[in-house]
Amino acid sequence: MKKDEIIKNINPLFLKGVAHRGYHNETITENSLGAFKNAITHNFAFELDVHLTKDEKLIVSHDSSLKRTTGKEGIIEELTLKEIKDNYRLLNDEEVPTLEEVFELTKESVPIVVELKPYTKTKNYKVLALKVMESLKVIIDKKNIILISFYPQCLLHFKNSGFVRCLLVDRKNSRVYALRYFFEGVDLEWQLLEEEKYQKAKETKLVMCWTIESKEEYNKIKEFSDSVTFQYFDITK
């Protein structure tokens, strides 16, 4: 797919900037319905992360461990959805949300970047991808979703799905960049865009980057990226 066709296949709001794990702050926990409501209020696209529970339900959380965002030990992939809902609360006292609950909240009022987070201990790449694919059946306009992952094994299942896919690349695992040709775009750790090698990607691919935390960082790479994922500041000001 050519670059202009890729851009036409995403909601233009993605190009304004993507709120990392929702538009969270000191009082609104990341990847919470409150953070997603805050993004909607500010008319921002937002990013979230999905894991698969023991009973194959999709939970929204950055980490497999629930400790950081709930204060309580527990691994999502080793717990059922009911165990998580009954025994864990986010630091802002909300429930840990499911992907279904986020879609119900948003109703495509703003677009969403969905990161697939497989559990490498069990290598659940395929089942995670298939469950996410099933959940996406509620999406009316495929332009409202971009799929990202560090694991090409997950993204490959969405070939010909109509959803734009971006391969996540960081400095520690930059070798995976060689696989970019299989996908519509790349989502780069922003420091990579200070290198000429990655600056050229914008010519043929959708280029997103993460995670921008200031205007100073944004100004360094904005000409080399189509969209940035940001947190802790308002990218529009």
Description:
By secondary structure, the chain is of the alpha/beta class. Helices cover 25% and strands 19% of the residues. The protein has helices at 3-8, 33-41, 67-70, 81-87, 99-106, 125-135, 152-155, 196-199, 215-221, and strands at residues 18-19, 45-52, 58-60, 112-116, 145-149, 164-169, 185-189, 206-212, 227-230. An eight-stranded parallel barrel has the order 1-2-4-5-6-7-8-9. The two termini are 33 Å apart.
Q: What's the helical proportion of residues? A: 25-40%
* Total count of strands: 9
Indicate the CATH class: Alpha Beta
Strand pairing plus helix content: what structural class? Answer: alpha/beta
Distance between the termini: 33 Å
Give the low-pLDDT segments: none
Radius of gyration over alpha carbons? 17 Å
CATH homologous group name? Phosphatidylinositol (PI) phosphodiesterase
Please give the order of strands in the largest beta sheet.
Answer: 1-2-4-5-6-7-8-9
Counting H and I runs of at least 4 residues, what is the number of helices? 9
